[in-house]
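In response to reviewer comment 3 from the previous cycle, which asked for concrete evidence that the modeling workflow produces usable outputs, we include below a single protein chain processed end to end. The sequence was submitted unchanged, and the resulting structure tokens are shown without manual editing.
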Amino acid sequence: MDKHALVIFNPTAKSPVAVQQWIGQIVEKLNQHDQYFVSFYPTTAQTKPEDLVQFIQPPLDLLIAAGGDGTIRFALAALAKAKSDIPAAIFPLGTGNVLARNLGIWQEKMFADPLEHAFDFILNGQQTRIDMGMMNGEYFAGMAGVGPISDAFMKPDRAAKSSFRLIAYMKALLATIAMRPRIFKITTGGRSFKVQASGVFVANVEDLGIGRPVDLNALTDGSLDLHIINPKRFSDYVDLGFRYTGGNRKDHVSDYALRVKEAVVEVVPRRGVRSAFQTSILKLKEFFTGKPCIESHRGEQLPCMIDGEECGVTPMRVTVIPQAVNVLVPPSAQEAIDLLHETPTIQLDMDMAS
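The workflow returned the following structure tokens.
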């Protein structure tokens, strides 16, 4: 009996790989080992994950999310809403491909070919249940964020991302240096505190996943990482760039992280204070453009981001959904997970024996 695979994709999204190229290859590769009936579900701007839930049921055997972080989030959100065990294969065709990088599906290179290993993992990947986050009722696979640095993930349009790839995000990030940081009230674990930050992120992934060994622990530990980012000097921005695009970790980087199960992030109606470096960049920007820097009004709610897309405004209420979906990962990544889960038991036995 033929197996059934459903491919989710956005036909209007810009991609470095032509649609007609990868669609044909998916059908060909799937049928090299088994007989597959392959159907396609093109999404639109109006499509919601719940629209897909009715199709996620037997006789469906495999769901393939083909696209960038937004399309992958959509497909996994539909699986989570359906509470389905049907595995999802990720076919990374976007700009950041954050989840694919953290799962080890995308090769550890900034300009890697998205098709180099993707077909192999569709056929030979091992099933692993990963966590997802939920922000204001919407699922996300990578991260939710708010603040000027978070806005940089939403700024580049599809044409810019298609032409300049990750450089488009770097340009948007540089533009945030002149923006005033904001004051946020964060509530988590039964306590509240206020911080000044240029970005607050609640992440299911450790970082953008570039240039470091694959570690699935962050995606399977039943918690999220709360990042409070408040760069003040030029060196802070350089360190953040290397941290999130190169996997380089330094103790003094201006990124405070806290492991959480849930968090509420609210905007405090007070203005943050620019550092001397940020003020100098503001003056240079206004001098060269001849225009004042326009910022949101004090107390105004800020736009929230999930997986690179705008999603409502603050307050941002986030919680983790443990073991939400079943995805296919490289065998080596699953072996690392198994070893990690076995280690505490071995240590406990040694302690008891002593």
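The first strand starts at residue 3 and ends at 9. We consider this sufficient to address the reviewer's concern, and the full set will be provided in the supplementary archive.
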